[in-house]
Specification:
Layout lengths: L5 E6 L2 E7 L14 H9 L6 E8 L4 H13 L3 E11 L1 H6 L4 E5 L3 E4 L3 E2 L5 H26 L3 H9 L2 E4 H6 L5 E3 L10 H5 L27 H11 L7 E2 L2
Parallel strand pairs: 2-3, 3-4, 4-5, 4-6, 5-9
Antiparallel strand pairs: 1-2, 6-8, 7-10
Helix pairs in contact: 4-5
C-alpha cells in the first residue's frame, strides 16, 4: 500500500486538501506517490470555485514543494490555506500558493535555506553549492512575492532559520489572518525533523501552550540525528533537499 502525505475531499461544489506529513516526490522519504498523482486527484475534483488547504507538515523535498506550489498556484479555484500546526521548510513554500493564508497564534511557520548531503571532488562540491544558491534564490522569490519584502531581507531570514508564531507570521506578511487556536494531532515524525534544525522549538508547535511567548529552545541531540540521516543518505550525491 502506497503512503501519501495528502488527502483530497469533495465538499459539494468545493474541495478540501489535507497536507499532513513529510513532503516527497519519490520513495526517498517513504512516500511512493508523486506530484503527478497529486495533480490528477486535484483535477478529479472538477471545476470547483473554492479549495481549502489544511497544512501540518515539517517539510521535505523542495522540488516536490515547488511542484505542489506551482500546481496549486495555477489552479483557478480560490485557495484558502490553513496552517493547522506546522508549515516548515518546503511546506511553507506550498502554503504561499494560498490566495488567503490563515494561521492560529499557536501554530508555527518556518523558513530556511535549502541544504543537502554531497560527495565527490572539489568541482562536484562547487556545483552543489551553486545549485543550492539557485534553489535558495527561487525560494526567496516566492516568499518575497507573497510578503512584499525585499529579497535581501527574505534571504537573511532564511539564512537565520526563522521560526514564526501566527502573530509574527502575520506581522511579517507571510499570512493574512489569525484564527482561533486549536488542538490537532501531532505532526508525523516532527521530533525527528526538529532535531535537524539549529533553532527549532523545544517541542512540536502543536503540543505547545498558546501563551508560551514563542520562546525558542535548541533541539536536543542534533549531532546524533544528523549522523543517522547521513547513514540513510550515503548513496546520494547531488540530491537537493529542503528539510
Amino acid at each position: 500500500k502506497m503512503n501519501r502525505f495528502w488527502e483530497f475531499k469533495a465538499l459539494g461544489n468545493a474541495g478540501e486538501l489535507f497536507l499532513y506529513g513529510e513532503i516527497s516526490d519519490t520513495s526517498w522519504w517513504g512516500d511512493e506517490i508523486t506530484p503527478a498523482q497529486f495533480q490528477k486527484e486535484l483535477a478529479a475534483l472538477g471545476d470547483i470555485p473554492t479549495l481549502d488547504v489544511d497544512i501540518n507538515s515539517p517539510g521535505g523535498d523542495i522540488f516536490a514543494g515547488f511542484s505542489l506550489y506551482n500546481i496549486l498556484n495555477r489552479h483557478p479555484a480560490a485557495k484558502n490555506v490553513h496552517i493547522d500546526g506546522l508549515a516548515a521548510s518546503a511546506a511553507s513554500v506550498v502554503a504561499m500558493a494560498g490566495d488567503i493564508i490563515k494561521m492560529p497564534e499557536n501554530a508555527t511557520l518556518m523558513i530556511h535555506n535549502a541544504w543537502t548531503y554531497a560527495g565527490g571532488g572539489a568541482e562536484d562540491l562547487r556545483r552543489t553549492a551553486d545549485e543550492l544558491d539557485r534553489i535558495n534564490d527561487q525560494i526567496a522569490d516566492i516568499y518575497a512575492a507573497r510578503t512584499g519584502k525585499e529579497k535581501d531581507e527574505i534571504s537573511a531570514l532564511m539564512t537565520a532559520e526563522t521560526w514564526m508564531s501566527g502573530a509574527e507570521a502575520l506581522d511579517m506578511g507571510f499570512v493574512d489572518e489569525l484564527i482561533e487556536n486549536k488542538k490537532i494531532a501531532a505532526c508525523v515524525n516532527s521530533e525527528k525533523w526538529f532535531a535537524l534544525y539549529k533553532h527549532a522549538p523545544k517541542e512540536p508547535p502543536e503540543n505547545r501552550e498558546p501563551d508560551n511567548g514563542g520562546a525558542i529552545q535548541p533541539a536536543a541531540d542534533i549531532n546524533t540525528a544528523l549522523q543517522e540521516q547521513r547513514k540513510r543518505f550515503t548513496a546520494t550525491k547531488l540530491k537537493i533537499l529542503e528539510v
